[in-house]
């Protein structure tokens, strides 16, 4: 199948999954990348308290909160 044909199916709302090899599919931009950030002690303590409340690690709450904020910013810019 040519790319143009696949594009037409997708654009018309057809299910194109039968035309894809999902065993080798990869999401772009999802590879972890280390970033070091220095926070004041009071922020670290506050993060630990919030993380403990919901039963996650400090790293997890930081990632979720930053992702939420970035998504909100993107939504705000789009409107």
Explained architecture:
The protein has 79 residues and is an all-alpha fold. Helices cover 56% and strands 0% of the residues. The protein contains 3 helices and no strands. The protein has helices at 3-11, 41-54, 58-78. α2 crosses α3. The two termini are 37 Å apart.
Query: How many strand segments?
Result: 0
Q: Which word captures the global form?
A: elongated
- Briefly note the structural class of the backbone: mainly alpha
What is the typical, i.e. mean, pLDDT?
93
- Percent range for helical residues? 55-70%
Largest beta-sheet characterization: none
Strand content: under 5%
Low-confidence stretches: none
Question: What are its keywords?
Answer:
79 residues, mainly alpha, 3 helices
Short description:
With 79 residues, this protein is mostly helical. It has helices spanning 3-11, 41-54, 58-78.
What is the topological layout?
Elements: H1 3-11, H2 41-54, H3 58-78
Helix pairs in contact: 2-3
């Amino acid at each position: 199948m040519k790319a143009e044909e696949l594009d037409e199916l997708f654009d018309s709302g057809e299910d194109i999954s039968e035309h894809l090899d999902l065993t080798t599919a990869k999401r772009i931009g999802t590879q972890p990348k280390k970033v070091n950030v220095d926070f004041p002690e009071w922020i670290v303590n506050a993060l630990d308290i919030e993380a403990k409340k919901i039963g996650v690690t400090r790293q997890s709450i930081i990632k979720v909160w930053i992702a939420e904020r970035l998504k909100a910013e993107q939504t705000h810019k789009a409107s």
